[in-house]
Each structure stands twice: as structure tokens, then as C-alpha cells.
Write a structure and sequence with these properties.
This protein has about 650 residues and is α+β, with helices and mostly antiparallel strands. It is built from 17 helices and 30 strands. The strands form six sheets. Strands 22, 23, 24, 25, 26, 27, 28, 29 and 30 form a nine-stranded antiparallel sheet that branches. Strands 11-10-21-20-19-18-17-16 form an eight-stranded antiparallel sheet, with helices on both faces. Helix 4 packs parallel to helix 16, helix 5 crosses helix 11 and helix 15 runs antiparallel to helix 16.
């Protein structure tokens, strides 16, 4: 996952003046970083001192590979890392011929090294700009926002940003719907996605809702307007709407301390915990990191109160309000606190489910939307799919997705193209139902859109909503990602237009961005970029899967399998049972399981990767430990599993 970070970095708004490179290109330095260097180099160093971004102007290079080599020689003369993968990036913001070079690092380095070479579309064809990233993974995740600001703000000399302000959009009618459906169908073909649910809304009504493809590979049932998908983190916008209803009812205040509203709320850092207001539970601005592994490996049968037990020992890793850091557990806590205020005395999970159903879904006519997994899976639903090691798509088991149930206000909703379109109509209606009935007061509907923390130059995060003004118009979005399900909802408040997309494959993650861009192109005659973005996304997916397969050994060789104990345990995460049978090695966790493959790392260590589907989660064997030990990491945390 860390190799993909630079394509998805979160960034802060431009509140400092732009700087200029030796070649006359402009950029915004990352907030909090120190600037050094001279001549053709600009070196930007994170406050922690273990992450640098270096910008190098190259006067003449044969191609991107040559430009990157020259940049490393200038910045780090002794650089000799082996190239892992070179990936094309689509042309945008005046840059062309972009190639990202990712280099091998050992997992125990906990480091990401990358170069991105690019040419200005208006340049002489020989001059290049190269960005060099050499960063500790913990700092890269924590400081991803300011690093991304720098990356996104870099523009060629004389480049005029695209601006759609003042343009009159074309009507989102049947003709445009067919064009967008055709684009999605082509994306499904290129990315090997079995099924997609779509919804299009305009002028206060659903223009079209339905689907393309099948619910499950190998079966004939088609996606339709009422097919249920997991919408994952799109749940957050719905949960913040529940909090808005609690504020409307006088049960909560946005500026109320969370611990006052619900005394069991606390964080591992007491001062940070006291600073959290109700609005901050949804803002991704408190300094709390993702730390998702602790719920991914927990039991899906854990009670809702376990969210508060987990938060009580978690520590923020940045200052309050400093940077965007996404926290699923904070959003889950916000949903449960709102539900407790509205349905006091009930078990938290039941209070939340009932409140969402009675106060939001029923009034909106979202009759199929639910948090009941058994109900969803018993009827018309899409099944999740992932990637085989050979690059083809396979049916995935649902078991890992059950782990979100205890934290369901952050991401466990099941919904349909028809229902999700009605949600977008409510957002476009400023809190009113599609029939014009008040649901949320306009004041509290609007409060959810107010900027809580910066996400890029022109993107802010409100309460479970991204508000994007980078094209000169306001676009509101949120996405959702779980195993085999990837989705997005997008609306333009000033134009009364919105779309939703729900996919049943991990490859769907690569379709969402090009789909949104295609919408802008068709509505506003924006620069044609969507087709190239889709083509590049599909090619990079194939290349990444091929490289992963090249690096992994399956089945696990007998000697490596013999090095594994039968059981491991970590006090925080839980247990791993290792099952060896029929030449396969499986890791069995509390709620889910997966076959694993072996990777021999550049430093001589070995890693075991879950692959159902995969490759996914990495466990590094510590051969130097006194007893069998596996190490599991996210960017900012480490968990050691030891044999009993």
C-alpha cells in the first residue's frame, strides 16, 4: 500500500505564498517543513527530520529514466537502490510524460523511496523536473497532507490552471447518462470489474438508477437499481447527518465536549480527549491516526462499546488541527454518541441502527438501506471480488468485512443505486427530502460542510464530507472502501447535479477518479483527461499485480513453512493460528482467514502476505527473536506476535 501513497496523498490548503524553482516553476512548500538547497535543487525536510522531498531541475535528459538518474546523482551521489517498478502517470496540470519510479526497501526499514520525473507540456522537450521522496513511513502518513500540497501545487512556468467557474453546464439528461454508462462499461472491461451500480440525479429527481454487469462472477443475476452494495465510508456523511438531527433536537451541540455528552469517551492522551467537541468526531483533524489494524483483526461480534475501549488507549500522533488524519474509530464514536443522545438507555449498536433507520433512511425513502448483514446477504446483493495473483478477478469471501460491524457508523452501510441517489438529492436539497419535507435544518446541514481541516490546495474536509473547489466550482464527495467494495458519491451543490457509483471489485477503486473526471468533461466541456486516466490506471494495476506475483512465492516453500509456529499472539490484536495442509499455509484470525505467500526481502528477511484476495497484509518474520515472532505494521504502529 505504501507504494501507492503518492497517488492518493492528502494535502493542506495554500495559505502560504508560492515559491519558484530555478527553472521558473511554482510550488507551495509543505507547511512545517524546512527549506534548504541551492541552484537546481530545493530540499524540503519534515519536522521529524526523517523525511525529505527534493525538487531537482534537470536541464537536459533523454527521457524520464535518465532524468531520475541525474536527479539522484545530484541529490544523493551514493544512491544505489534497485528499481522495483516504473509506472506511468497521466498528464495533468501542464505536466506530461510523467513516470513514477518506486524503489525496493526492506520492510524493517519502514521507509518509502520514490522519484517522479515529468516534463512541462510547453517546455523545450529536454528539460525535466524530478521530485525525489525519501521518507520514513510514519512521517509520510502523518505529513502526507503538507507533502501532497507541495506535489499538487507544482506547476510549469506560465501554466494557467483549469477553471470551470462561470461556465453553464450541459443538462444531465438521457444522452449524457448513456455517455457516462458507456465510459463505465469501458472501465469495467479494462479493469475486469464484474458489476457496477450507478445513479444520476439532476433538478431534484433521479434521472436514472440501475446497474451494469453481474452481481457475482459465474452467475447470471444482473446489477439493478435495488442491488445492495457495501458503501463503506460513505456511511460517515450519513452518520454526521444523524448528529445534525441530534443537534436539531437539542440533544447535542456541535461545540459540546464529547466527554460531556458521553462520559465514557476518552483518548489515551487526556488533554486531547478533553479538546474533542462533537464536530471534531467527524473532522479528521484531531491528530488521531487511522490505526485500523486494531479493528480489522478484532471480532466482528464485539459490542459497539468496544470502540470506546479502543480509543481510550490510542494516542494522537500530530497536534490538534495540524494535519488531516483519517480516523474510523473517531467517526464511529460520533455515531454512537449521537445515537445515545437520541435513544438513551439502549445498547449503543441498537440505538444507532434504529436512529439511522427511523430518522434518516425511512423519511428519505431509502427502503433497502440497512446495517443488517444477514438481511442484505439474503436478497438482491452484490458479492465482493478481489485480485488473484495472476491478475484476474476472483470472488472474495465476506468474512473480513464483518470486522467493521462494531465500528459501523464509520463504514458498514449497505445501500443501492436508487437509495444512494435519494441521499444525494437530500444533500442537494439542503437537508430536505426529495419531496421537499424538512429533514435536517439548513443551518445544521450547512454546518457539516464547513471546513474543519485542509485536504489539498482547494479541498477541505468537513464532517464526513470532502469539499473540493480546485476547478473553480464546488464539488462535494465522499468515497468508501472495504474488501471487494469501492464506491463514491459526488454532487455539485450550485448546479443541482449528482452521481453515485458502487462497485463490487477491488479494481473499482481505480474507476472512481476517471468517472468523476468524465462527469466534469461532459458537463462543462472540461479538458479531455478521463480516458487517459482510465487507461493509465488499468495499465498500472496490471503492472503492479505482475510485479507482486514476481516477488511472491506460492506455495510457501517447506523450509519457510517449517519456520512458522502453530500459534502466535499479540495482546492488542489477538491471535494467529497457522494451518498447514495440502501444501498450503493459512493464517487464521478471529473472524477471517487467508492463504499466505512468501516474499524474500532485499535485506534477507522474509515476509508472509495474505492473498485471499491479495496480495494484502504483510507479516515480517523476526528470525533474530528468541522465539518465533511475526511483526505486523501500519505506517505508524507495530504489533509483535509471539509464539506462546
Amino acid at each position: 500500500m505504501r507504494r501507492l501513497l503518492l497517488a492518493m496523498l492528502f494535502v493542506l490548503p495554500l495559505w502560504v505564498l508560492a515559491d519558484t524553482t530555478a527553472g521558473g516553476h511554482t510550488f507551495t512548500p509543505p507547511q512545517g517543513f524546512t527549506k534548504s538547497g541551492a541552484g537546481q535543487q530545493v530540499v524540503l525536510t519534515a519536522p521529524e527530520g526523517d523525511a525529505t522531498v527534493t525538487l531537482v531541475d534537470i536541464a537536459g535528459a533523454v527521457d524520464a529514466k535518465d532524468a531520475a538518474a541525474q536527479a539522484w546523482k545530484a541529490a544523493q551521489p551514493a544512491f544505489n537502490r534497485e528499481l522495483r517498478l516504473a509506472s506511468e502517470r497521466p498528464s495533468r496540470s501542464g505536466w506530461v510524460d510523467q513516470i513514477a519510479f518506486n524503489y525496493h526497501t526492506a520492510p524493517n526499514e519502514k521507509r518509502t523511496v520514490q522519484a517522479i520525473a515529468m516534463r512541462a507540456s510547453t517546455g523545450d522537450g529536454k528539460s525535466w523536473v524530478v521530485l525525489l521522496l525519501d521518507a520514513a513511513d510514519a512521517t509520510l502518513e502523518k505529513r502526507g497532507a503538507p507533502i501532497g500540497t507541495f506535489f499538487a501545487s507544482l506547476r510549469p512556468r506560465g501554466y494557467d490552471r483549469e477553471n470551470l467557474a462561470g461556465k453553464t453546464p450541459h443538462a444531465l439528461g438521457p444522452e449524457m447518462v448513456e455517455q457516462l454508462k458507456a465510459f463505465v462499461a469501458e472501465g469495467m472491461r479494462q479493469l475486469d470489474i464484474p458489476g457496477v451500480g450507478l445513479g444520476f440525479v439532476s433538478d431534484g429527481k433521479v434521472v436514472w438508477a440501475g446497474g451494469l454487469g453481474v452481481r457475482e462472477l459465474g452467475k447470471p443475476e444482473r446489477i439493478d437499481a435495488d442491488t445492495l452494495f457495501m458503501a463503506a465510508s460513505n456511511t460517515k456523511a450519513m452518520t454526521s447527518a444523524l448528529a445534525a438531527r441530534a443537534v436539531d433536537a437539542g440533544k447535542l451541540r456541535w461545540d459540546q465536549p464529547a466527554a460531556q455528552a458521553y462520559p465514557r469517551f476518552r483518548l489515551g492522551d487526556a488533554q486531547a480527549g478533553r479538546s474533542v467537541q462533537i464536530r471534531h468526531l467527524f473532522c479528521a483533524c484531531t491528530g488521531m491516526p487511522r490505526q485500523d489494524l486494531e479493528w480489522i483483526f478484532a471480532s466482528g461480534k464485539a459490542p459497539a462499546r468496544s470502540v470506546f475501549e479502543q480509543l481510550a488507549v490510542m494516542q494522537p500522533t500530530s497536534r490538534f488541527g495540524e494535519v488531516f488524519q483519517y480516523s474510523n474509530l473517531m467517526a464511529a464514536a460520533g455515531g454512537y454518541i449521537a445515537a445515545d443522545a437520541l435513544r438513551p438507555g439502549k445498547e449503543l449498536g441498537a440505538a444507532y441502527d434504529e436512529s439511522m433507520r427511523e430518522m434518516l433512511f425511512k423519511p428519505l425513502g431509502m427502503s433497502r438501506t440497512t446495517f443488517d448483514f444477514a438481511q442484505a446477504l439474503a436478497g438482491n446483493h452484490a458479492s465482493p471480488h478481489g485480485d488473484r495473483l495472476d491478475g484476474t478477478t476472483q470472488l472474495a469471501r465476506m468474512d473480513l468485512n464483518y470486522t467493521i460491524i462494531p465500528a459501523r457508523p464509520a463504514g458498514a452501510v449497505w445501500t443501492t443505486p436508487r437509495d444512494l441517489s435519494r441521499w444525494v438529492l437530500m444533500e442537494l436539497g439542503k437537508g430536505n427530502t426529495p419531496e421537499g419535507q424538512p429533514l435536517i435544518s439548513e443551518a445544521n446541514w450547512r454546518e457539516r460542510y464547513q471546513p474543519q481541516v485542509g485536504v489539498s490546495e482547494d479541498v477541505t474536509y468537513g464532517m464526513g464530507l470532502f469539499v473540493d473547489r480546485q476547478l473553480g466550482i464546488t464539488v462535494v464527495t465522499h468515497g468508501g472502501d472495504l474488501l471487494g467494495f469501492h464506491s463514491n458519491m459526488i454532487w455539485l451543490p450550485d448546479y443541482g447535479v449528482g452521481v453515485t457509483i458502487l462497485t463490487n471489485s477491488d479494481a473499482g477503486q481505480q474507476l472512481r477518479g476517471p468517472f468523476q473526471r468524465k462527469l466534469m468533461e461532459l458537463l462543462f466541456d472540461a479538458r479531455p483527461e478521463a480516458d487517459e486516466r482510465l487507461k493509465v490506471a488499468a495499465a498500472n494495476r496490471r503492472a503492479e499485480l505482475a510485479k507482486q506475483r514476481e516477488l511472491l512465492t506460492l506455495p510457501v516453500p517447506p523450509a519457510a513453512a517449517a519456520s512458522l509456529a502453530s500459534r502466535y499472539r499479540n495482546a492488542t490484536i489477538g491471535s494467529i493460528r497457522v494451518r498447514k495442509r495440502a501444501g498450503k499455509v493459512e493464517f487464521v484470525f478471529d473472524r477471517w482467514k487467508s492463504e499466505v505467500a512468501l516474499r524474500n526481502n532485499v535485506d534477507g528477511t522474509q515476509s508472509f502476505f495474505t492473498i485471499d484476495p491479495g496480495p494484502g497484509i504483510e507479516f515480517v518474520r523476526d528470525a533474530k527473536a528468541a522465539k518465533p515472532t511475526l511483526i505486523l505494521r501500519d505506517a505508524q504502529h507495530e504489533y509483535r506476535f509471539e509464539a506462546p
